[in-house]
Amino acid sequence: MSxxxxxxxxxxxxxxxxxxxxxxxxxxxxxTGRRQVVGLELVSQGEVYDWAPSGEGRAFRKLTLFxxxxxxxxxxxRHLAALLRASLRLRARYVFLCDFQLLPIFLAACLLRLLxxxxxxxxxxKFDDKQRSLWRELGKAVLYRPYNxxxxxxxxxxxxxxxxxxxxxxxxxxxxTVSMERLARLAGTDRPAHAERxxxxxxxxxxxxxxxxxxxxxxxxRRRCSGxxxxxxxxxxxxxxxxxxxxxxxVGIDGVRFCGWLDDHEVARVLASSLALVxxxxxxxxxxxVNEAIALGVPVLLAENCGARDHLVRxxxxxxxxxxxxxxxxxxxMERLARxxxEWQRLSANTKLFRSAADTAAFVAGVxxxxxxxxxx
Length: 377
Description:
alpha/beta; Rossmann fold; 2 domains; seven-stranded parallel β-sheet; 15 helices; 41% helix; globular
């Protein structure tokens, strides 16, 4: 049977960034000769992430439904019509959809299910992301009804979907992954010594990233450190940027560098020279930057709210888990990693224990597990 005649697996995201390309490339390579993989990119310009155009896939076929558009610029009915038309034209039996809460995605899931397709929701939401309302959660449960199964980021995402009524046997983890090989290639082999490394925050400048606490912790670290203080690189952009710069100036926090929005090449370079990734979010469904840090052997200091801690971080093994309101505790850990090279080397070496869970190989395994389960029903 030719590859063109195989029923494809369709993966639809609003916009493709490096992570989406990683996953589809890995799956396309793994399924060569067995199934096609098709990525449906709804629009080529993002509302939240300023990703560069992702180009064509090598091991999979990528289709952009509305080139040059942003999601909000396209009416909902056009999103729905284009997504349905593409899925039916491809004769896809399995369609993986993200952004379940959006009306065109919900309607597409309903109609595809009625037309006999197997529809899988991709997500990483958790119950502890925010305050929950009973009535809102009851309404949200309705939005999941069209789906045959779910592909999720971690255990807390799985528990949340079980709470909303999806059977456990139809939920598989492994969704939130990136290519370890790509990150290592982008970072190169020239890595600085322990004494030359800095702390890094890579995040959008929005309230849930809790960046004011990161600044408070860094200021406390500088007060207690005995040697030359390490710099703190704040990499990202967002509505709080001016407020954060004002706070640095008013408090007089030396050593903070604002690096702006970074592309995937620049992120890899910054992380590869980092002493630790700092991620103190109060709300973080997963946190794919943790995968990137692990790919490059960088210990992680992250809040317990982050979904990535369930699979990728063990406190005292490859990093430390903190409370998102504990600036003093975070500063102590920052000082320890800056001062104790042996401890840093131990944590860095242990990141290799978690790379298989962070890599796109886990995405491939998750998809294959889902297909096996759905074929049995």
